[in-house]
Write a structure and sequence with these properties.
The protein is an alpha+beta fold. A four-stranded mixed β-sheet has the order 1-2-4-3, with helices on one face. α1 packs across α2. It has a domain at about 15-30 and about 40-79. It has helices at about 20-30, 45-55, and strands spanning about 5-10, 35-40, 60-65, 70-75. β1, α1 (about 20-30) and β2 (about 35-40) form a beta-alpha-beta unit.
Length: about 80
């Protein structure tokens, strides 16, 4: 169940659409199958980033909330 995290991206203080754009760019730098964990601190990003990345074809591994932050774990899926 514990996927290894290949890269972490802390986007605390950032808002949509920047959180999605920066997450997407970070995923493009990863190889297929690698995992990115994104930290956001607002509910709009916590809702929109996983939805948008999923629509781009990436696999949302988990979305965890705690202490005013959300951890979005996503696997890069090529194509």
């Amino acid at each position: 169940m514990a996927d290894s995290i290949d890269r972490e991206l802390d986007l605390s203080g950032e808002v949509c659409p920047y959180t999605f754009v920066k997450s997407k760019l970070a995923l493009e730098e990863l190889d297929p199958g690698q995992v990115l964990r994104v930290t956001v601190d607002n509910s709009e990003s916590a809702s929109n980033v996983p939805k948008s990345l999923s629509l781009e074809g990436h696999e949302i591994v988990s979305l965890e909330q705690g202490q005013g932050k959300w951890l979005i774990t996503v696997r890069n899926v090529d194509g």
